[in-house]
Amino acid sequence: MTRWFIPVTLVATLAFGADAMAHGGTYRGPGDTVPPAGGGAATPTAPTAPTAPATPSTPAAATPATPTSPTTPTVVTAPTVQPTQQAVTGPSTGPDLTTWEFWWEFNKEPYLNLKAKVQDKGTSTGEADGLIGLGGLSTKSNTLAPSAGQISNLILPALQDSLQNDENRDILSSDLVALAKIGRDPNLPTLFQPFLKHTQQEIAETGALAFGILQDAQAIPVLKELLNDSPAGRRMVGSQTDIPFRTRTFAAYGLGLIGHAVNDQALKQDIADTLWTTLTTDTSSFKDLRVASVVSLGLLRLENPADLVAKLSEYLNNEDNGFLEKSHCPNAIAKLLRDGNSDAASVQTAVDLFMGLLSKKSTKNEVRQSCVQALGMVADGNAPYASKVVKTLIDISAKGRDRQEKNFTAVSLAYVGATVANNHPIRSQITEFLIKNVQKGSTAYRPWSALALGVMSFKVNQAGGQVASLVPRTVLEKFKKTKAPSEKACYAISLGLMKNEQAKSEIREALETASDPDLRGYLCVSLGLLSAREHKDYISSVVKESKRMPNLLQQASIGLGLMSDRAVVDALVDLMKGDSDGPPALAVLSATATALGFIGDQRSVRPLVDMLQNDEVTPLGRAFAAVALGIVADKELLPWNSKIAEDLNYRAAVDTLTDPNGSTGILDIL
Description:
two-stranded antiparallel sheet; mainly alpha; single chain; about 55% helix; globular
C-alpha cells in the first residue's frame, strides 16, 4: 500500500552542527514516534530503491532547525515472514517530537475539510461526464465531486482491472485501498478475499485492512476470524500454523473502522466484545495487537458506553498492564464518552480518574500525556469540576516534568474554553492565560498557545459564538514580529483558523518574502483557510514553480483547493505527466497525486485513469494514480484514517500505528 511521507518536512537541529537531511512522507507522524522500549516486536523491512537519507541524529529536546524540502522517500516492502518477537529497546533519536507541527498534521483534516469545500462550491457544467465519453449521464451537476457515472463506469472498472491483472506490489496494494475507500460495489469483499493469501505480507495485510476501510458489516466475520487466529482464519491466509501478527493487527483496526460506521448497536457491541477479549487475553510481546484493540474500541461510538468505559478505566488503573497499551486508554475513554450518551456522573468519574493519574509521580509520561489530552476532550467548562481541571492544566503547563505533556495542555485548555459561552469566566481565564503565553511564554510553549487560540476560535465560531477581539490582534502582532519560520508558520495557521480577515495582506506579504519552503507552504494553507481568493493567482504561480519542492507544492495546492480554485487541477495534472526532462521525481509525483486526491475535483479523473492504464508509466506512477483515484472518489469526505489520527497520543506509537522510518503503519497509508 503506497505508504509515503510527503507533505511536511520536520527536521531537528543536528548535534555538532552537521547538515540536516529530511525524510518525506504521507504526513501522519513525525520521525520515530515509538518510545524507547515501547513499540511492538521489531519488524524487519526490505527497502528498495530509491532510498531516502537516514533520519538525522539529534537530541529529542532540540529546537527544530529551519525545515528543508523533502528528499525522495524510502519505498519499503513488508516481510513475507512472521515478524521477530524481540521488543524494541534503546533510545531513539530524531526530530523534536514536541513541536506544534506534529499535532497539527495529525489533527488538521476536520479543520481543513478540504474535499467538502472543493466539491460543494460552484456549479459544474457537466464537463467531467463529457470526458468519460459515456452516454446517458447527467450533463449538469451542482457539485465538483466525481459523478456517479464516472465512479461506476470509469474509476471502479479501471481499478478492478488493475487489481486483477497487475502484479506489482505497489500497484496492487494501492488498488486494494482505493477500491475500499470508494466502495459502491457489493462484489468487492469477494474481490479482496484472495489477497489475504498473497505471498507478500504487505499485500496480505492490506487485504485485511481493506475490509475495514470498506466499512461493510458483512466483513465482520472475516476480520474476527483473522484477529482470533482461528482455524478458519488460517485457511483464509493459507497458513497451517498461525496468522501473522501484522495481519491480525490490521484486522483489529478494520473492526474498529466498521464499528465506527455501522448504526446497529448489537454489531457494535459484538465488535467491542471481540476487541476487549483480544486486549485482555493476548500475552505476546507484540504490543501492536493490544494497542490496536484499545484504539479501535475508542472508535465504536456506542450509544451506551458506560460498561466499556468502566472496563477500560479498570485496565488503565491496573499496574500489571503495559504502559504503552494503557497510554491509549484515556483517549479511547474520552472518545467513547464524547460520542455516546454519557451522563454527567460518568464524565465526572473519568475526569477524576485522569486527574488522579496526573497527581501520581509514578504515572508514565505517555499515560500523563494522554490524560492531559483526555481532560480536554471530555471536560465541560460549565461543570462543577471545570475550575479544578483548568487549574490542573495550567499548573502542568508550568511545572510538568515532560515537555509533550506540558504542550498538550494548551490544546486541552482550548477544547474546554470552547464549551462555554462567550463571557463565561472559564473562557475568560483560558483566553487570558493563552494570550499571556503567546506574548511572554517560553519559546516552546508560545506557538502551542497560539495554535490553541486558533483551535478554540474555530470551535467557538462553529458553535455561533465569538472570541474576544484581543485574541486575533495578539496573534497577528506576534506573526508580524516573529522571524523564526516554525513559530511564524504556527501563527499563520492560527490566524487562518480564526478567519482573521485583517491578516490576509500580512500573510500574503510574508509569503512573497519568505525563503523557507515549509513556512511558505503553511502561509499558503493559511490564505486558503481565509478564503483569500484575491491572492489565488500568486499561489497558482507558487504551485507551478514548486516542481522541485514537493512539500511546498502540496501545501500550496491545498491552499488553492480551500479557495475553490479549479485551475490548480490542470496544473497538477500537467506536473504528473512530466515534461521534456522526463517523468517527475518520486517525491513530486507523490505530492501531486495526493494533492489531486485531497482536492477531489472531478476533472482529474480521466487523466488519472489514463495514467493508471498506461503501461509506459512507471509502476510507482501508476500506483500513485490509483491512490489519487481512491481519494478523489472516496465515499467519505475526510481521509479514512483521520478518525484514528484525531486526538491520538502519537507519542505512544507502535509500528503498525505509525512508523515514519518504515512507513508501515495504518496512519502512513494514503
